[in-house]
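Question: Now follow the chain.
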Amino acid sequence: MFEALERLPVSEMAMRHAACRQRLAEVAPEAGGLAVFSRMGIYYLTGTWGNGVLWLPQSGEPVFLCRKGLERARLESPLGTMLPYKSYSELPGLLAEAGSPLSPVVAAEMSGLTWALSDLLRARVKDVRFVPGDAALARAMAVKSDWELGKMRLCGARHDKALQELLPTMLHPGMTEREAAHKAWEAFFSLGHMGHMRMNAHGEEIFLGHVAAGDSGNYPSVFNGPVGLRGEHPALALMGCAGQVWRRGEPLTMDIGFVLEGYHTDKTQVYWAGPASGIPEEVRKAHDFCIEVQARLAESLRPGAVPSELYAMAMDMSRTAGMQEGFMGLGGNKVNFLGHGIGLAIDGWPVIAKGFDEPLCEGMTLALEPKHGIPGVGMVGVENTFEVTASGGVCLTGTRYDMLCVE
């Protein structure tokens, strides 16, 4: 009686399974398979936002054990074997009966479980040794297929249209941050934004993003990013403050994501309240420097480039230009990265930062976000989402990076 809104192609699912298995052999060669617990990981490997456990053996058929929503899973996913279950204690028996028994060593997506649930899993499944398997899943998800890239390109084009074409006509000095945030939602929803965005980092949340007028851009932040903001309330330090007005002669920094069919792009657009002739030289210089850094990084987004080396290059640029103070945040807001992978979550693998030494691959998508905080003024700079190609990074979120002036 029902039809799925979308069904993952069998070829796409098989390609994802193969990529995960290949990565698993590299990061956990002793493991006979990967147990996936997060809904995002299950979605990536099955096509359904499943509640349960997916067992992906190195050889043999994968099995999805579903706690809730089995009927929907069967509509949306082409996976062959999907079974109901209630307790972790049932896993060994059910998987054995399905012809895909657990191996003596299992790689687990450990970030997909709470501490309490992982203890419960070990107590119920006693004859298995669990090893970390998160890296295999993260690395597989980092390289996008043509099917995924099609979604992200469409998402990026709509993101750019909203921030470059629609929103400037809806903003004006004198608005509060909250009013500006609501206008952003209005523009985004008109172009198909799905509303709910996702993050990988444990306990991290995102709702629209950061809307910061003037010195809000340097307000102490609890979010792992360079843009400060007052936010809605201490209980939701996101979006925009109803008590903060965007005044003439100030930047309005909107670091806000777009999501379409599950896939995200990230983009920051700075609006200036007043004519271009009124932008102070210090502000213009900082913003232009961020555009320059983005261009250098984007040109280097080729297969084989090393993220930690790209980070070092950008830091060298900031020191050479005398821009290190305020670059990537002021004071406690300063962050030690220049960009991040993006796809089904805003914060994907890899990160443009120290310690990320594995070379980039064609088809990866990364958000580059060089920004600069100016005391008493706010935050300027850029962020855009790029696809790694043999000829360098291709921007998915537009090619216009200047501040947009709103009278």
